[in-house]
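User: I'm new to structure prediction. If I give you an amino acid sequence, what do you actually give back? Let's try with this one:
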Amino acid sequence: MAHPPQLQDIAVLVVEDDEDYRELTLATLRECCDPARILGVADGERALDWLLGRRAHAGRDTRRQPRLVVLDLTLERVHGIDVLEAMRDDPLTQGVPVVVLSGTSDKAELDRCYQAGANSVVRKTVDPAELRRKLHQMYEFWITVNEANRNSRV
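Assistant: Good question. You get back a string of structure tokens that encode the predicted 3D arrangement of the chain. For your 154 residues, that looks like this:
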């Protein structure tokens, strides 16, 4: 099944189960990036289905991976750590940068993120100005400054 070009050429995948926070994150990223290149999904299972070309996304060109995954830590269905570990275990997604968004300040939980393969952990905030600043800086670094891992893209 062929997918529209915008689902093939995603720059940023946002995985967030809180609908309000997901929409706020997506709206903020749309200020930096072509909105057609940003995809938001509501849980870890949907994220892995899209990334790995499973179920509803069977047939998606999985050689085309996002430049960045913004991953909530505490997700329904499949926990953020499990999503991250599955990504690091698959050759198609192991090189994709992952920034974990977390509301926790528990050092052990944050350490688990890095041990599972997170490239960065960013503290969640409900302050819209602070969230906007953090997301713009994250986008600027990972999409504009950082040299993409070309092995993970076509």
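You can read the tokens as a compact description of the fold. Here is one thing that stands out. The CA atoms of residues 11 and 34 lie 9 Å apart.
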